[in-house]
């Protein structure tokens, strides 16, 4: 019977070879897409099933040779995974789950965890479509997580897979964005309005923060902004580092013109409630809650644009800004933005030569009701934006209630300064009055020989997370910083006040920073009492104090073994993986290359029965 079944399968694969797999019917639409190379020759589409923890990729490359797609890390190509495929000149398909032994050498995985869905070649493109689990049990496969993922793409001009650095590309992408803009209905009465700076001459300085105050459109009734996107001037994309829009209290007396946000005139730093945030590498975003304005909402905003003109280029004019989409069709709730993290200047500092250095900023919500003058409903967080500068490597926000850690709300252990975008949470997180929120940032300063201080410049540092939530309240920011007197004392410095303590830290530039001294100052900053500064949209400020609690790491979930794959004997197989392996010989694997298509046509149950029958030898 096994021979008869194998003959039937051979007939089936003859009728529907892998190169024909995606011609037998329309494939489901993949919602997300991105070019991976500067010349737009390598195009990626993808989508995922968050519950099943399966992601599907479709790579289209302008070549008649092999193509490859996988995941790498920040530091080395060695260890990267790469799914390789193509169509040979005789029309046969080849497809394999591989990894890089070193920067240039590919080797096939012992466990084949990618499932082919289609592979075609035409006069212009080779297109490969496959799915894989977020986390397989193969140690050669990189995990797909809610962190920034460094997607690796490569291709050749013939059908011999060989790495060529000129045809290898890495792009940082947040793959697991839950809500796609096209998933949300656009109101029929949508109005578009641009909040932009006009013909601004970018100074020939490394860092410039330009601010101006702009009115929101005059409306006769309440409106909601439901979407925004960056509006960048061509050729200035790499110089515009970030754009922030702040809501102004209607009692604020605002200056005119354009000036340095944090310069001689403090009026240009008025308005502190962030309502829109975009940074380099980010795209537009649609809120599930809505920002509002009108008779009772903000009528003016502060537009802040951070320019990083590292090459001191002269004569550059800019008219960048934010394009907002708004409507009179109101949602149930108004949206708010809460800024968390470390109070940036001047307390925040990071030693040089650090492989890893942690900084912490605490928020205590116990004063929120007092500062609002009324009970504050539970805060429903649905999105977030992470922000550090060049030394940032990881960032996370943790929630505590009654002294116990509830959850890690959001994190990115592979943070990339060049990809800062607003992200959706997979579920709403409820913050109740009295909860504590802790932001932890991890930095690396191996390339620096002096202290890095918190500040606005790109070569300074920040540690911020913006929460997008509903229903809105008046608190705009809640940030903490450590007792610098305690930190200085722990380092042997005799100081009597915070300013003297900060001056003492600045004077430590000549200290020999060793791994031991770096860990000592990191420990002192964590153990020090935190001052928490809470600010409202109307510039009311309250302080409180608190202590940093330990963070319990988030356990990794079970790995998923694919049909046709196996875990190598030397690998540690975590308990609880979801599907028992089906072990096939190499010959059988070659025969059954189009089994994913058979599963689509005849059902996974029938296919599983067929494979079991083959293996049992009935």
From TrEMBL:
Domain of life per record: Eukaryota
Location of the DOMON domain: 40-156
Cofactor: Cu(2+)
Keyword Zinc-finger (UniProt): no
UniProt entry keywords in alphabetical sequence: Copper, Disulfide bond, Glycoprotein, Metal-binding, Monooxygenase, Oxidoreductase, Signal
InterPro entries: Cu2_ascorb_mOase-like_C, Cu2_ascorb_mOase_N, Cu2_ascorb_mOase_N_sf, Cu2_monoox_C, DBH-like, DOH_DOMON, DOMON_domain, PHM/PNGase_F_dom_sf
Molecular function terms, GO-annotated: copper ion binding; dopamine beta-monooxygenase activity
GO terms, biological process: dopamine catabolic process; norepinephrine biosynthetic process; octopamine biosynthetic process
GO cellular component, one term: extracellular space
SMART domains: DoH
Family annotation (Gene3D superfamilies): 2.60.120.230, Copper type II, ascorbate-dependent monooxygenase, N-terminal domain (2.60.120.310)
Annotated signal peptide: 1-21
Protein family (similarity comment): Belongs to the copper type II ascorbate-dependent monooxygenase family.
PANTHER family from the UniProt entry: DBH-LIKE MONOOXYGENASE PROTEIN 2-RELATED (PTHR10157:SF31), DOPAMINE BETA HYDROXYLASE RELATED (PTHR10157)
Name of the featured protein: DOMON domain-containing protein
Species of origin: Bos mutus grunniens (Wild yak)
């Amino acid at each position: 019977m096994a021979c008869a079944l194998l003959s039937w399968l051979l007939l089936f694969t003859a009728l529907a070879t892998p190169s024909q797999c995606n011609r037998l019917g329309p494939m489901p639409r993949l919602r997300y897409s991105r070019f991976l190379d500067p010349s737009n020759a390598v195009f990626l589409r993808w989508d995922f099933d968050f519950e099943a923890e399966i992601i599907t990729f479709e790579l289209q490359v302008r070549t008649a040779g092999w193509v490859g797609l996988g995941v790498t890390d920040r530091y080395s190509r060695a260890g990267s995974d790469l799914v390789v495929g193509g169509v040979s000149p005789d029309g046969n398909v080849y497809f394999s789950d591989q990894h890089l032994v070193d920067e240039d050498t590919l080797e096939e995985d012992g466990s084949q965890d990618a499932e082919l869905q289609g592979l075609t070649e035409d006069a212009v493109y080779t297109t490969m479509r496959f799915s894989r689990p977020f986390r397989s049990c193969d140690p050669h496969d990189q995990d797909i997580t809610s962190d920034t993922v460094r997607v690796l793409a490569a291709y050749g001009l013939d059908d011999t897979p060989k790495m060529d650095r000129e045809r290898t590309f890495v792009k940082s992408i947040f793959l697991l964005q839950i809500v796609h803009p096209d998933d949300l209905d656009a109101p029929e009465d949508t109005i578009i309005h641009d909040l932009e700076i006009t013909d601004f001459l970018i100074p020939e300085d490394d860092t410039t923060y330009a601010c101006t105050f702009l009115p929101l459109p005059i409306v006769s009734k309440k409106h909601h902004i439901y979407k925004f996107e960056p509006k960048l001037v061509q050729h200035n994309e790499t110089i515009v580092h970030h754009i922030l829009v702040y809501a102004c209290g209607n009692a604020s007396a605002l200056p005119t013109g354009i000036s340095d946000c944090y310069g001689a005139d403090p009026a240009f730093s008025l308005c502190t409630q962030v309502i829109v945030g975009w940074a380099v590498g980010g795209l537009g975003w649609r809120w599930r809650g809505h920002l509002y304005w009108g008779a009772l909402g903000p009528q003016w905003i502060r537009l802040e644009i951070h320019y990083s003109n590292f090459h001191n280029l002269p004569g550059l004019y800019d008219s960048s800004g934010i394009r907002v989409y708004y409507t009179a069709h109101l949602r149930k709730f108004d949206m708010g933005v809460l800024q968390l993290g470390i109070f940036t200047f001047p307390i925040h500092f990071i030693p040089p030569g650090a492989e890893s250095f942690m900084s912490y900023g605490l928020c205590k919500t116990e004063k929120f009701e007092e500062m609002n003058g009324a009970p504050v409903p539970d805060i429903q967080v649905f999105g977030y934006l992470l922000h550090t500068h060049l030394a940032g490597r990881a960032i996370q926000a943790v929630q505590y209630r009654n002294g116990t850690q509830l959850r890690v709300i959001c994190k990115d252990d592979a943070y990339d300064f060049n990809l800062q975008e607003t992200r959706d949470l997979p579920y709403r997180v409820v913050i109740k009055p009295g909860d504590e929120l802790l932001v932890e940032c991890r930095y690396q300063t191996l390339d620096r020989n002096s202290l890095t201080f918190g500040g606005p410049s790109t070569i300074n540092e920040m540690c911020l997370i913006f929460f997008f939530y509903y229903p809105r309240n008046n608190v705009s920011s809640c940030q903490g910083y450590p007792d610098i007197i305690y930190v200085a004392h722990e380092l042997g410095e005799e100081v009597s006040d915070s300013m003297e303590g900060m001056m003492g830290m600045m004077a430590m530039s000549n200290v020999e920073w060793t791994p031991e001294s770096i860990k000592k100052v990191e420990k002192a900053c964590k153990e020090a009492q935190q001052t928490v500064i809470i600010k409202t949209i109307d510039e009311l400020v309250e302080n409180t104090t608190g202590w940093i609690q330990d963070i319990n790491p988030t356990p990794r979930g079970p790995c998923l073994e694919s049909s046709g794959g196996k875990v190598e004997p030397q690998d540690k197989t975590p308990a609880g993986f979801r599907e028992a392996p089906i072990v096939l010989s190499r010959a059988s694997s070659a025969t059954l290359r189009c089994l994913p298509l058979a599963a689509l046509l005849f059902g996974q149950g029938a296919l599983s029965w067929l494979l079991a029958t083959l293996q049992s030898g009935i």
